[in-house]
Amino acid sequence: MDKIKFNIKREERNIEISFCNIEEIQKIIYARGYEGVCIITDETVYELYKGTMDDICEKISGSLIILEPGEKSKCMNTLGEIYSELNLRGIKRDDLIIAFGGGVIGDLTGFAASTYLRGIDLIQVPTTVLSQVDSSVGGKTAINLGNNKNRVGAFYQPQNVIIDIDVLNTLQKREFNNGCAEIIKYGCILDEILFDKIYDIGNLHDTRVIYKCKLEQIIRRCIELKIDVVQKDEKDIGIRNILNFGHTIGHVIEGIDDYEKFKHGEAVAIGMYLITKWSESKGYTVIGTAEKIKNILLKNNLPINIQGIDSEYAYRAIIKDKKASASGVKLILLKEIGECFIKHVPLEEISKMTEEIFV
């Protein structure tokens, strides 16, 4: 058999994470020399930052796409609408797309940028705790297919991520707490000192003003931890899986009632606690770890339990998870706070696990 082999050298470049005021966006755009710019946001964020976005569009002849807020927009229909709008507005391959909003906007816009014209430069401007510490960093982009979370997506790194801590003051308490679940996750899997710092502060939302410097330090630390993992495994085939701690159970919970009942972080909070309780019962995790997680979640007004989930429904949802294979599912478990591991669990044990967790 004759063969032709060739090697493609992947592009290596720096991704900038800028801690600055969102008003600095214009300077960054000018410095990079973009001629065409399209900002994609949602109605809620636009009302908060209308002046900033309108000013950018006016000064650089940019355009706006404003979507309905919420997880329901993270779907194929909305993606198609974005493609149509980008085409209508004449966005070219050397132009720029800005994702200005929370996790849904970041994921959806990132996927649109990765696929429209086979890739357009992207800047992420995350406006929630969750998107600042997690979804805007690392290059994961995706949309949902029905109740299947993040089923269609791509790895696509932004040129820049702009972090403005002050925008978090606009968040309602529930939305702020929603992001705190991901902050707590980093402490659970990678950094016991971070976990203890969060625990000592108490409720991050209620102390965000008096402890602003500490909050910024915490957010920076979460980003540093994620960058360290992503640099080792950008495409999520190995060690990056640990960032999904709490997500296997969490995605089951989040999909209930068409994403209306629980926010992502709330579902992950429940997932972290329930999987650790189960893990303790199997001897994988130091006894008392689940109690520590329970206490820190309750301090931040996050849920720890759920009633009424059918174990068979949960099992079928889990085996559709991205970490599932024909032989089993990769679960992210804790040895103790600050130390985690990946365990491949056979499907028959997953079935038993869902029966034990969702009683």
Automatic annotation (TrEMBL):
GO terms for biological process: aromatic amino acid family biosynthetic process; chorismate biosynthetic process. SUPFAM superfamilies: Dehydroquinate synthase-like. GO terms for molecular function: 3-dehydroquinate synthase activity; metal ion binding; nucleotide binding. It is an enzyme of class 4 (lyase). InterPro entries: Dehydroquinate_synthase, DHQ_synth_AroB, DHQ_synth_fam, DHQS/DOIS_N, DHQS_C. Its EC number is 4.2.3.4. The keyword NAD applies. Keywords: Cobalt, Lyase, Metal-binding, NAD, Nucleotide-binding, Zinc. Gene3D superfamilies: 3.40.50.1970, Dehydroquinate synthase-like - alpha domain. Residues 179-324 form the 3-dehydroquinate synthase C-terminal domain. GO terms for cellular component: cytoplasm. Residues 65-177 form the 3-dehydroquinate synthase N-terminal domain. Its cofactor is Co(2+); NAD(+); Zn(2+). This is 3-dehydroquinate synthase. It comes from Oceanirhabdus seepicola. The lineage of its organism: Bacteria, Bacillati, Bacillota, Clostridia, Eubacteriales. The gene is aroB.
